């Protein structure tokens, strides 16, 4: 018979410091003990004790760096470990569902993509795909690694505390309790947290992407739908019910093209993937591949494709201008297909941004592509899964 | 010869608590010692000492309440005093400049209004008006009262830390160092702080008006121009350079009416005072009186006036919808002339708000008039002047 000796509840300060130290490695990657000591304003011995505890608990690894022989005793390097904790991160998009194992530091250890070829799938089917994928992933990574939670990105409005997807028009989901569905089937009783794709994208870009040094940022995500993730004064703007950033159905012109939402002239009808394909004269499904083909053809000299991208760029500049006037950010990241528009037609975006924004608000704004490419939402979802562990590495598992 | 004995620098905690206590009275009005003790989580004796110090320094008054005889020893009531500190609050509007002495608690002790009959005046003239008015005010209030600062509301984009008015289109001011102008002539070397009218309005409404219990609020101010003051998660949304909320020149329809800014179809061309007058068929200057006449005539049954107000209401609902989609607030306050539109045509606003906002974001939003009426910006300006005093009542004067 094994006797379990009750462990005394560790003191709050130590647990807080364990979280800070783990968070430093999560944010900045491998760090020496000396760097950690300096960043945390702790004594060398306290840092040493914290590192020892995190190593013992299997959360971090400590090793003497190989290679470059420097004079004196080499400082140990503290970093993530292969058999450590990982997040099950999920990005539910219209045409495919990506599930990934993401380790401390935001490293994608393995990923699994399902293409939902016949159009968007129902939430029950999506949940089944995710469970299947997370089982497959666990076979691909170090057998000692263990999942700490599941974070899920959805292209729609989400009420985070209930896990309810209120409205995801391009998935055709309305008031779906996707969080509960996933919780019911998640392996090993993993806690599940759901967020909006653009909200999660800006979170990840602020942590480790192209908004690292910014306090006021907009991530405008354009795929089939369009949404914004917003950071104000260094903090996420969620809104009262967590539904902020729903810019895709703001009406640009009440006599504009009919939108699937029933209104006319929504932002999506000008800068969404379907608009781009229509402008390019293509009767193709708005898959990432078909959209990428328009950008490739535009770059190769196809006049109609080029004109389509430039038309989207002009409308995009105007959309950004309206957001800039309201929010006065220092940076706007253009993600999803909008990154392709930025690549090909930055000047066209800049021209309408200049024409449609107030001089005071446009002075300091910069347009950029996301630093994490197409993985912003996925890595933001991983952050949802890691959140509890980083607050209290001892208590949460 | 008077010998000044240097006073020992009071300790930080006491000063902090003095600020908190003064802030309680400022926010909630007269309070008993018992209420203050409870609210501040302090001992009775500490509260007593703080009250004694604030009374001694002439910042608050303590008295035994008259009237209602209750059993036992009556609790002293702590409140503002007539010969206490006051803010010089200034609201620069297009057609008039209001200067007021505002006491602790947000009470307007006296006010002085100058009508700038021949159209908006230059900043130098405005500064001269303000100085003249503040001298006149000091003669109208208790001779023992003393000003702690000057706070100024301007209908334009303001860079607060430089006191620069970047652009106030309806005053025709561009890049005017209005803060420096006022500082140079302000009586008794009063510190001057400038803010945007809508930003200050939402500040005051959040402190003591109709947004007291809200964490996420938009104050949409519509007079000749249109701007928004925004509170997100309980904190003002200023933006990176302090220019957030400039919604008046967001374009609703690129082929709409010509705006004085050079673009077509700006929000102001649909819901500003000039739009209302034009729709009502009146070739009158957009003064508050002429605008009020349209509302009065609409209420009295004038069909054309009523149709004009309802047309503005419909456009207003759409403008609010776009902001609601992006910010997901719990309340939207409609100030300036928009309050008159709300009075007469709330259903028309609600109808387009319903049609143009996402279901998730509109569920919880309520439309209301400002609780402080036309004084929101003025009282917000007073808060700018009081800010230092409330942080450290001992150090700032």
In short:
Chain A has 397 residues and is of the alpha/beta class. Helix content of chain A is 41%, strand content 21%.
Textual characterization of the structure:
The structure is a homodimer of 397-residue chains. Helices cover 41% and strands 21% of the residues of chain A. Chain A contains 13 helices and 16 strands. In chain A, strands 6-5-4-7-11 form a five-stranded mixed β-sheet, sandwiched between helices. In chain A, helix 10 crosses helix 11. The longest helix of chain A is centred in the last third of the chain and has 25 residues, at 303-327. The model of chain A is unreliable at 1-8 (pLDDT under 50). The interface between A and B is large, with 47 and 47 residues.
Classify the beta-strand content of chain A into a percent band.
Answer: 15-25%
Largest beta-sheet characterization of chain A: 5 strands, mixed
Largest interface, with counts of residues having CB < 8 Å to the other chain, equals:
A-B, 47 and 47 residues
Name the strands of the widest sheet of chain A in spatial order.
6-5-4-7-11
What does the radius of gyration of chain A come to? 23 Å
Total of DSSP H or I helical runs spanning 4+ residues of chain A = 13
Distance between the termini of chain A: 24 Å
- The outline of chain A comes out as globular
| Oligomeric form | homodimer
How many individual β-strands of chain A? Answer: 16
The mean pLDDT of chain A is: 91
Helix and strand element order of chain A: HEHHEEEEEHEEEEHEHEEEHHHHEHHEH
As a percent range, the share of helical residues of chain A equals 40-55%
Structural class of chain A: alpha/beta
Uncertain spans of chain A: 1-8
